[in-house]
Specification:
- The protein is an alpha+beta fold.
- The protein has two domains: 121 residues, Aminotransferase class 4, branched-chain amino acid transferase, N-terminal domain (D-amino Acid Aminotransferase, Chain A, domain 1, 2-Layer Sandwich), CATH 3.30.470; 155 residues, D-amino Acid Aminotransferase, Chain A, domain 2.
- 26% of the residues lie in helices and 30% in strands.
- The protein contains seven helices and 17 strands.
- Strands 8, 9, 10, 11, 12, 13, 14, 15 and 16 form a nine-stranded mixed sheet that branches. Strands 1, 2, 3, 4, 5, 6, 7 and 17 form an eight-stranded antiparallel sheet that branches.
- A hairpin with a 3-residue loop joins β14 and β15.
- α2 crosses α3.
- The structure holds 4'-deoxy-4'-aminopyridoxal-5'-phosphate (PMP).
- The site of 4'-deoxy-4'-aminopyridoxal-5'-phosphate has 13 residues, from α5 and β14.
Length: 305
Amino acid sequence: MDLPKHAYFKGKIVPYSEAKVGVATHALNYGTAVFGGLRGYWNDEKKKLFVFRPIDHYRRFLNSCRIMSMEFDQTPESLTNLTLELLRQDAYQENIYIRPLAYKADEGIGVRLHNLKEELTIFAIPFGLYIKNDTSAHVTISSWRRIDDNSIPARGKISGAYASSALIKTDAARGGFDEGLVLTQDGHLAEGSAMNIFMLRDGVLVTPPITDNILEGITRRSVMELAQNELGLTVVQRQIDRSEIYICDEFFLTGTAVQITAVTKVDHRPIGKGVMGPVTDSLRKLFDKILCGNDPKYAHWNVVV
Ligand code: PMP
């Protein structure tokens, strides 16, 4: 794997090799960190790097910080500016993934959130496809359950909560699947290990509500808007039963990492006709054009480095 070139660390941009923490760091021991995940897309014709919806990502990031009692003198705009500064130094000419991370930085023993100092770091790495089979993914329904708002709030991107995502992903991968979907404690579909889900049933696009222990995905929000405004689809947020996925017409995953990934099989059952459906295909094409900065109508979603 590529290492980052630089990191924003302790208030300045340094070579990545200098961005180090001690092994007793609170966040490393207890998962007391929150993170974000953004993408930059290199447009080779325009020779420009486009970052997708950084203000929205940083708004969610700062909300995650609030959930974990972390205070920073930052705004979504100031974090976006820091990111642009970092990316100018990195000077990548390829697609990248950007990772902001806020963490409890004290070194010592004692589980808590209070009376600890916070640090902020940001780094970026080259990044390609997250799920190789992005037009024909085969997913399984995980035997793990989704973390609950009353245990580790799923709407915060809290590092410790991703131990659960790791269990879901690895069990799915070891079982030969591309991804795992998780059910809520009461048995409704919540999301994938690190992505939101959508199903098309009888011409209506359905996704679980934000009160079903999902991360409030930026891609999810973008896809809902595109489906309504560009494809004229009705989009509904409601609980989804497990058996609905077996009989729906199309199913796809959304997220910064997976973008829009078509799911064509779940637990060895074909979804719809067993190939990527037309709605998923149209949304993918629309979204690709936007991400690379080639759609003037959605230019406001991108920030150019
Ligand atoms: N759910 C989870 C658990 C995630 O980690 C992610 C990735 N950030 C998503 C959904 C998708 O969110 P977004 O579209 O903002 O990347």
